[in-house]
Amino acid sequence: MSKNIRFNDSKLVDILRKELKEVTNIPLKEEHLQNVLYSLISHIRNDTRVSSNIKISSSSYWNQVEGNFYYKNEPLNFTTKERDVLSLLFKNINNSVSYNIIAIELWGDLVDGNRERIKTIVKQLRKKLPENIIKNIFSYGYKLEIVS
């Protein structure tokens, strides 16, 4: 997690206390709640499965730290541009990314012919990926669709 989390916000603590009380039916003191939350955040930060891998299926995942796609625990080989597109799509998982945004990410500007170059890169990506996760958004761009 890149954000600094502070629990001195009494409103946040009150909301969490109420939510947890509903689930557990046990009233919690603010100090105890803070300790539990800090412990959970620490656990999540140290759990590499949570912090660095996005599971696609039982046999494939994206490692955010390495910027690589794994299938049956083996990394797939991509060109630099393929990896850049895939990384951008994973950063925007389940959200549409326009051709213009992809072009700026890849080449730093908008030039005639970029759309066709992007389509070629995505076509090659689709051939390499074991799952059909890249969806075309007609006349706009692409979306990485991951169903959890």
Can you describe this structure in just a few lines?
The chain has 148 residues and is α+β, with helices and mostly antiparallel strands. The chain has helices at residues 10-24, 30-46, 48-52, 80-91, 99-107, 114-128; strands spanning 53-57, 60-63, 68-71, 74-75, 96-98, 134-137, 141-144. It is built from 6 helices and 7 strands.
Q: How would you summarize the topology of this molecule?
A:
Elements: H1 10-24, H2 30-46, H3 48-52, E1 53-57, E2 60-63, E3 68-71, E4 74-75, H4 80-91, E5 96-98, H5 99-107, H6 114-128, E6 134-137, E7 141-144
Antiparallel strand pairs: 1-2, 2-3, 3-4, 5-7, 6-7
Defining key terms:
148 residues; 49% helix; disordered N terminus; three-stranded antiparallel β-sheet; alpha+beta; 6 helices; 7 strands; Arc Repressor Mutant, subunit A; four-stranded antiparallel β-sheet
